[in-house]
Design goal:
6 helices, mainly alpha, 0% strand
Length: 172
């Protein structure tokens, strides 16, 4: 028996009943077939509801996610890439010219230097967030949101401290 006849026989066995809801059709299909959750790769064979038992996300008839939340990852990526962009610029300036001169109050120099180090440290972190996108999206939504807001906060605080310390240094 060829593969195409097996597939077509399989489809004939599972012609949906027009009265069934999408969820009933999906559950009926998964009662006899193995398919993976698109988010966590959990084997969905035998599920009794259109919800992945592993990650808790709802499933569509197409075995797709119903509520993938992308904004936390996107916010993390944008905030860290902003920091990383300035971090690369700082890294090249420090390599070529060394750290900026110590003008201003000692605390403003310390704040400026710490913000420069945060900018430079964000380069590999931003790369990791971009490359580990799927792993981050598999995290619970609450953890994703916490990470996103933390990255946004660090970005805002670091830029603010950097520009304040530079303004103070320029006055003296």
């Amino acid at each position: 028996m060829s593969d195409s006849s097996t597939i077509s026989d399989d489809l004939v066995d599972h012609v949906p009943d027009p009265g069934d809801s999408d969820e009933q059709q999906l559950v009926r299909y998964l009662s006899e077939h193995s398919d993976e959750c698109p988010l966590c790769n959990y084997n969905l064979r035998g599920v009794t509801r259109a919800i992945c038992p592993e990650c808790g996300h709802g499933l569509k008839l197409t075995v797709g996610l119903t509520d993938l939340l992308i904004w936390p990852w996107a916010a993390m990526a944008v905030a860290l890439c902003l920091l990383a962009g300035l971090g690369l610029m700082c890294l090249f300036m420090v390599i070529l010219e060394g750290m900026p001169p110590d003008n201003g109050a000692p605390w403003s120099v310390l704040v400026r230097d710490l913000t420069i180090y945060v900018f430079m440290a964000s380069v590999p972190i931003a790369a990791a967030v971009v490359f580990l996108r799927k792993r981050i999206l598999r995290m619970p939504t609450s953890k994703q949101k916490t990470l996103a807001w933390s990255c946004i906060g660090i970005c805002i605080v670091n830029f603010t401290l950097f520009f304040v310390s530079m303004a103070i240094a320029m006055r003296t």
